[in-house]
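::Amino acid chain::
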Amino acid sequence: MVIIIGFVLIFGGTILGFTMAHGRPSELFVLAEYITIFSMGGGSLLIMAPLPVLKEIVAKSLAIFKGKPFKEADFEDLIKVMYELFVLGRRNGMIALEEHVMNPSGSSLFKKYESFYKNHAAVDYLCDGLRPIVDGRIKPDQLEPLMDKSLETYKHERHSAPFILGKVADSLPAFGICAAVLGIIVTMGALGGDVSQVGTLVAHALTGTLLGIFLSYGVVAPIQVNIEFYNAGEQVYMECIKAAVVSFANGLPPLVAAEVARRVLDEEMRPSAMDLESALKTMGSK
């Protein structure tokens, strides 16, 4: 909702200011300039970005209008599912986790927490973290580097979309100049004609410059920055998993491991220590 308000202010304020200066909004819509700039911008995007990145750009550009990727309840569910896993491992041995980490799609425990179960990247990350411990292939103190490497790859994959959008934003002012130059070429060819026509052609050419700068700083760059914040929210979710799994693998009790995970969260999404402890102990008593 906030993003929509921002775009309304950007577009509405620009048109209103132009109108107050006795301009006609219709003068800002020159089809030839729009075709030129959107073709250049779209073409450069297709050339720079592989298909998976293009899909990621579209998906994230739509997702940011929904707000943050996770709500407080989603983080609470995440901590609860990990707590249940840890309690199970503590009581029955790590081998008891095998049915869940080896076949996460069939885990009855995971299915209890829908927001977590539907997040395939998070489920895979949690299971990849616990699997070597369940198998006994590595020592607990060797787990953190493995999870760090997976998290590094996760971050790198999600860096591509805002990086490419940043390149497009940087290019758009230059594309606007190109569109304006094309308009000036047309204008120069009409210098021997009607003076009023020449003025109109110059105005059309300048519209191209305006459009390139406006799209760059008023549309693409703000979307790029918001996607970066959105990705950071997703990364916190994964950091929460890593903190809890590493803590539990190194011998901390399930409740303490859950507390470590809680402290990773941003203040806005972080449940209080007392509320979380009460909720987890209530689960344990069921």
